[in-house]
Amino acid sequence: MAHFINEKENTVTEAIDGLIKGSGGKLARLDGYPHIRVVLRSDWDRSKVALVSGGGSGHEPAHAGFVGKGMLTAAVCGDVFASPSVDAVLAGILAVTGPAGCLLIVKNYTGDRLNFGLAAERARAFGLKVNMVVVDDDIALPDLPQPRGVAGTLFVHKIAGALAESGVSLDKVTAAANQVVAGTQSLGMSLDTCTVPGSPKEERIAPGKAELGLGIHGESGVEQIDYETAKHAVGAVVEKLTQVMADTPHVVLLNNLGGASVLEMSILANELLSSSIASKLKLIVGPAALMTSLDMRGFSISIYPVSAEEDALLQIPVEPAAWPGCMSIGAAEIVDLPDGLIPIQPIPSVHDETKAFLTMCCNILISAEADLNALDAKSGDGDTGSTLSGAAKALISALDRLPLADHTQLYRAIGQELSQTMGGSSGVLLAIFFTAAGDAASSGLPMTDALKEGLNRMRKIGGAKPGDRTMIDALHPALAALDDGIKPAACAAREGAILTAAMTQAKAGRASYISADQLKGHIDPGAEAVARLFEGILLAAR
């Protein structure tokens, strides 16, 4: 897998320079490249307790992204997934420690404990007051003698950082940090391992599986489970966390391990805040990428039983932009729709034949979902099948409240339903089509003519015409032939769809943004959907 890097050897130093250059002058670094890579506050005057953290790179924004007023004073960066050297840690300590002393916040990995620990000893030999706390919040392997330090480290950064910024003593900051370490529990899950620049990827997690409890360096977790849904994934993590949670208010941190999309993380947040532990959760940090593992497609959940004082400390604003804030958890607020947007519900009526026909049409589109998505992926974003399938499923669920016995009103009702349930340009165009067909039918036009009027309105508003490589290339000839029967209409729809494969320039729709080379030889997915629909109706009529 390719990465947006230059020379592998310069990955960390170039990333640090990018962070500093975009900090608005709030961050600086020590002059020690390439072996000493320390990011520090540019405004630091050594008058308060300094907080120094760090470790291997690849966990960004941790730790350099949390350097700033209210959190860390300095971060010491090692190579990707490798602890910084003793000299690098010592340089960071010496650069920021004044009479008030320094607290080292270290994740529980052998290299970090040894290098930070020895650096602390050497700093004390210089006469500096240096304490160290070791974060070991990972509960994935309960029998492990040295539990790993993972995203719960951020709770220590924030609470200790707020206290240090307020001017309290080193001993008080250390005691508070140790209390957070003792109470924090974390667990992660991922659908894939991470990719280290310049190294082959370990394909350990098979498709359809998720690994529970893997480490932030890609270390194996406690078990692999079948992946089903986001709800199931959160439930598996929550089940383990429940075993170590007290019946008191907690703060929760939802961490993106690097490769999950923002959309996915919001879904995970919704599941977390609806889970069996939701009643114990008072505050939330995230969802956000906080302690990542390069591009790992996973998440972790960290919990801590928060006191009233810690609640206040967590919510104090800080300077680092990587900290997303700590928010109170509450029910989703729902605001009524503005007047005029609440849809007028049609009067339902029963007509078994119409219901069966519409159900059949919807099932044709549902069964074509994968094929239409594959076609759309050639010329768009690969969602035409899913969009039509979703609308078809919504329409099936709405059939019992539609005026099935009154086709004039039924066209309009279908248009209204599609305008509410079907997104994208297809949704609004088909809503226009059916609404206009209903208007035409109410004036006395027969079905075929009413549908043609719907097509005319859709063309007028949408701007597409035959030859533009859209669904109209199949729908227009099909409706033109419909008076002669369903078989001629189906043949005309298929012929129109096939012609779109030879159209090298789309003039409407998303495909109009795509180069001719990408379109050549591929049927337009909207036209294919129309052809499939008419062919399915023909097959059922035989």
Written overview of the protein:
- The protein is α/β, with parallel strands linked by helices and 542 residues long.
- Helices cover 43% and strands 14% of the residues.
- The protein is built from 18 helices and 13 strands.
- A seven-stranded mixed beta sheet has the order 9-8-7-12-10-11-13, with helices on one face. The protein has a six-stranded mixed beta sheet with strand order 1-2-4-3-5-6, sandwiched between helices.
- α2 packs across α3 (110-125) and α4 (153-166) packs antiparallel against α5 (170-183).
- The radius of gyration is 30 Å and the shape is elongated.
- It starts with 10 loop residues before the first helix and ends with a helix.
- The mean pLDDT is 93.
Quick tags:
542 residues, alpha/beta, 7-stranded mixed sheet, 6-stranded mixed sheet, 18 helices, 14% strand
Note the topology.
Layout: H1 11-21, E1 27-29, E2 38-41, E3 50-57, E4 74-80, H2 86-96, E5 102-107, H3 110-125, E6 130-135, H4 153-166, H5 170-183, E7 185-190, E8 209-212, E9 223-226, H6 230-242, E10 250-256, H7 262-272, E11 281-288, E12 298-305, H8 308-314, E13 326-328, H9 352-367, H10 369-379, H11 384-398, H12 407-421, H13 424-442, H14 447-462, H15 472-481, H16 486-500, H17 516-519, H18 525-541
Helix pairs in contact: 2-3, 4-5, 6-7, 9-11, 9-18, 10-11, 10-18, 11-12, 12-13, 13-14, 14-15, 15-16, 15-18, 16-18
